[in-house]
Write a structure and sequence with these properties.
heterodimer, A: alpha/beta, 2 domains, 10-stranded mixed sheet, 9-stranded mixed sheet, 10 helices, globular, B: alpha/beta, 11-stranded mixed sheet, 15 helices, 28% helix
Chain lengths: 444, 477
């Protein structure tokens, strides 16, 4: 009996308190949803490590002790990135910039043109009153308590988020940049993004996650993010995730998109930072002829630990999907990748492809890959492939024999490896990404 | 095609109507010992006593039984089916004859009849090295060609091995598959009965395959055979295990443990074709250790059973060791073949190859579940995994769950999987040459299975082709 009471008291520090201030945010319906999600979080046990999706990452690492975790000040360093992106906006590379500090303070920049066209980019706290119907209908539809315990935590505790609505037939020509900055050590950051793209509409969005605790000895920052995207008939959505959180940040992120018939979705997860990250990207192909492509790139260095999942869920007939998920690791970095393609019984004549390539740049790294298929009908074309291996020494030899220094040769090979993903990245961000890769290869 | 698709039921019900006469034969049996149903320490004590086992084995059984009780049913895979197993409603020991027969003539007539249907005596006449036919829980017939005996090959029932080679058994028993490994390995260790014990002396090349046939024949009787194969340095051996079992009306459990040890430079190939009846749970732990420069190959066919969970494993523990797993699964009506392979690279310069082929038909479900683990010290290792799945019928399901865990960078790992249905172009081509659609489909399926069948000894390949033909009868696209 003693044993149980100790256990529950230990756990109670991690429960969401009845009086957590976030639960009181928003209109009546939202407060009710938050309370249900709080209940779901508190009553759901931690995922068992035996589940293959939790085999490589300890769920305890994403729990937050609500009594000790504080909202701390933001480092000045982040202003640099803000300046870079504000400059991009001024130079006309972006159609708008949203700067989100830990879900607490959200600043909107340069959105006048969009709003003239009737395109909505605003905070969720603003949207719940001005776009009440849309928000009430779509918020929590794809990422909720059923998705998992940590998704319930985000749903209950997110303070404010970002809402984007592109009405039918409207096109956002240049990328819209969302810059989320997390606080320092012992900070808890809840980000939420809801995107609704109407029929025949088009949107490119860059979802960037920076900041977080940088000094392992001083403590950890916690970020929990939820992204929901709806792409209606014949829409085209490009979603780029750029994750570059600091060296002592823990990040839990769940992305779910649902696309209807004739819609296209391009998802580009780029992961470079955070000491520990668990990211889950999923696209539900919910209408005939829908098409989804994912090009992922993960570059791990130091002692960083990555755990990524992708899901392509074919619900409708004649849907196609393709995943190309690339991983490069150096130092003592660890990556686990689980990718599921599921084709439902009623989804005929689907095509689904998946590829996961892992490049190991030195001894001491670890890579796990589990590309999964669940095919519930016969009328499919489906394949996946995965490889894990070092840089081909012959390629390095060839390049060095032409007078190229060893480290440049390695850089060239890694760039070649990442090329298929680079090609998909919008201009402006592309330079920052290639710089990030080059920086990480300088001393190899 | 659309015509037949509209009325699949008549075809589906006709399919396998002749299973009972062709493969589901069950002879009335007069049993010698048939204990009570259920499992407890008394049953374990009784089994051990009846077999006149040394005390250390009895103690191990008891320890394993406690592990069995303490371990939960696996929480992964087809948990709905697994939870249907009622462990207290199963016979854990049945002994059909009192003594082991040394001569074919001494084998009781009713058992011979069953074997005749399986073709054992005929096969023996031809080229079998030894027959260790497991009818019920114990080996009832055992013979070996004299020349093998002279060369020093020990091929006994596991019970015989325990009595005649106690020290060897004591040294290796439970070292590759410890009872704590999983719930079913614990159960097997507690109640094991029958199975084969093989020892091949150093440097000997056993030119002819050693074979054993397994059958289950009492309703609700579990079969818990235990096999231990040791190939000493530089030796070579091929062991074949084949199963067919009669049809029963209630669930039956088969939980075998197979331990294979290939010492330095040895080569072992272990071939199985599993064709248990459609109500049997086939939950088997098969594992091999390959030492320096040794090679182990699992050739594994899964046709029968209701639920099979079988992931033959090879631990490459010595430098330069090689592993090969070639498996085929056929999941027909109401079947779930959850099969796969595991390779653990724990030494440098090791290599492995896994080839898995599965066919899901009607509402059958075939899952590939596998693991390739490469440890830090296993530098310059190579691993490749290839999965091919063929789906036949709108309700068919195929899953692929490969896991690759790589802890060092001096490796080459590749994985590929494909899932598809029978291609329309191929069907069209064949039917345009005068084949019926069924014939064409059968031809395509046989072609799909070919990399597997060509690895089998001839009579097994023939039997497998017959089984596939039977499974494919009345198929609709």
């Amino acid at each position: 009996m003693n044993k149980t009471s100790t256990k529950s008291s230990l756990e109670s520090e991690y429960l969401i308190d009845e009086f957590a201030p976030a639960l009181e945010r928003g209109p009546q319906w939202l407060r009710e949803r938050r309370r249900v999600l709080r209940q779901e979080f508190n009553s759901t046990p931690l995922p068992r490590r035996g589940l293959h999706t939790w085999r490589y990452t300890d769920p305890n690492k994403f729990l937050i002790r609500h009594d000790t975790v504080l909202d701390t000040a933001f480092d000045n360093g982040y202003d640099d990135v803000e300046k870079v992106e504000l400059a991009h906006l001024e130079q006309g590379h972006l159609s708008g910039l949203v700067i989100d500090h830990g879900g607490r303070e959200i600043k909107l920049h340069g959105l006048e043109e969009l709003s003239e066209k009737g395109i909505v980019v605003t905070t969720l706290s603003e949207a719940v009153s001005r776009h009440k119907e849309l928000v009430e209908r779509y918020l929590y539809q794809l990422v909720n308590g059923k998705t998992g315990k940590f998704e319930a935590m985000n749903g209950a505790l997110f303070n404010d988020g970002i809402f984007i609505h592109v009405p039918n037939g409207k096109t956002v020509e240049k990328p819209l940049h969302l810059l989320h900055e997390a606080g320092g050590e012992n900070s808890a950051n809840f980000h939420r993004v809801l995107i609704v793209v109407g029929k025949n509409a088009e949107l490119t969005v860059i979802d960037e996650y920076g900041g977080g605790a940088s000094d392992i000895d001083r403590g950890v920052s916690y970020t929990n993010s939820a992204v929901e995207i709806f792409g209606f008939e014949d829409s085209m959505v490009r979603y780029v995730l750029f994750q570059r959180q600091a060296a002592s940040a823990h990040l839990y992120l769940t992305h779910r998109a649902r696309i209807e018939s004739g819609a296209s979705m391009l998802t580009i997860p780029l992961s470079f930072g955070a000491s520990l990250s668990k990211q889950n990207f999923g696209v539900i192909l919910n209408g005939e002829g829908a098409e989804s492509k994912m090009y992922g790139l993960l570059f791990g260095s130091g002692h960083k630990h990555y755990d990524n999942h992708t899901l392509h869920h074919h619900v409708s007939s004649r849907t196609t999907s393709n995943i190309d998920f690339k991983v490069a690791l150096r130092d003592r970095a660890v990556s686990a990748y689980t990718g599921l393609i599921r084709i439902e019984k009623g989804a005929k004549a689907c095509e689904a492809y998946q590829e996961n390539r892992n490049l190991l740049l030195n001894r001491g790294v670890k890579a796990e890959t589990i590309p999964e298929l669940e095919i519930l009908n016969e009328d499919v074309k489906c394949s996946h492939g995965a490889t894990i291996g070092p840089i081909d020494p012959l390629s390095v030899f060839y390049l060095t024999s032409r007078g190229i220094p060893q480290n440049e040769a390695v850089q060239m090979i890694v760039s070649g490896f990442a090329e298929s993903t680079f090609k998909q990245i919008p201009k402006g961000l592309k330079e920052r990404i290639t710089d990030s890769v080059a920086q990480r290869l300088e001393d190899i | 095609m659309s015509d037949s698709a509209k009325q699949p039921n008549s075809d589906l019900t006709n399919l396998n109507n002749d299973y009972a006469t062709k493969y589901g034969f069950r002879d009335p049996v007069d049993y010698f010992h048939k204990g009570a149903k259920g499992i407890n320490h008394e049953v374990v004590e009784m089994i051990s006593k009846l077999k006149k086992e040394p005390r250390w084995m009895t103690d191990r059984r008891h320890e394993a039984l406690d592990m069995f009780f303490s371990k939960p049913i696996p929480q992964w895979g087809n948990t709905a089916l697994l939870n249907e197993i009622d462990f207290q409603n199963i016979y854990y020991f049945v002994k059909p004859v009192k003594e082991m027969s040394k001569d074919w003539d001494d084998v009781p007539e009713y058992i011979k009849k069953t074997f005749d249907r399986l073709g054992i005596p005929e096969a023996e006449k031809k080229f079998l090295g030894g027959v260790s036919a497991q009818y019920e829980s114990e080996v009832v017939y055992h013979s070996m060609r004299d020349d093998l005996k002279k060369q020093g090959v020990i091929f006994l029932s596991m019970d015989g091995g325990l009595h005649e080679q106690e020290e060897v058994v004591r040294k290796y028993f439970g070292t590759v598959v410890p009872p704590a490994d999983n719930k079913f390995a614990a159960l097997n260790t507690a109640v094991w009965s029958g199975g084969s014990f093989i020892y091949v002396p150093p440097g000997l090349d056993v030119k002819i395959p050693l074979q054993a046939y397994f059958r289950i024949n009492v309703e609700n009787m579990g079969q818990f055979e235990r096999t231990l194969i040791i190939a000493d340095k530089g030796s070579r051996v091929h062991y074949i295990e084949g199963c067919t079992a009669p049809i029963y009306s209630t669930e039956s459990l088969h939980a075998a443990v197979v331990e294979v040890i290939a010492l330095e430079g040895a080569y072992i190939r272990y071939t199985t074709i599993q064709n248990w009846a459609r109500n049997i749970f086939n939950l088997v732990t098969k594992r091999a250790s390959a030492y320096r420069n040794a090679t182990v190959e699992w050739i594994d066919g899964n046709i029968g059973s209701r639920l099979s969970m079988k992931y033959p494993c090879i631990q490459l523990v010595g430098e330069g060791a090689k592993a090969e797993v070639l498996s085929v699964a056929f999941a027909g009506i109401n079947q779930h073949q959850d099969a796969g392979a595991k390779v653990i690279h724990a030494a440098p310069n090791t290599s492995s190859r896994i080839t898995s082929k599965s066919i899901s038909k009607d509402n059958g479900r075939a899952s590939y579940r596998g693991l390739v683990k490469i440890y830090k010290n296993a530098v310059n290792s190579k691993a490749s995994v290839e999965c091919d799945a063929l789906l036949i019928g709108e309700e068919a399901r195929s899953d692929t769950y490969p896991t690759m865990e790589i802890d060092n960078d001096q490796v080459k790992v590749e994985h590929e999987a494909r899932v598809s249905k029978v291609a329309e172009e191929q069907l069209f081509y064949l039917t345009s040459r005068g084949l019926t659609e069924d014939e064409a489909r059968l031809l395509i399926v046989n072609g799909f299975m070919e990399p597997f069948t060509k690895e089998l000894p001839m009579e097994y390949a023939v039997e497998l082709n017959r089984l596939i033909e039977l499974e494919m009868e009345g198929t609709v696209g």
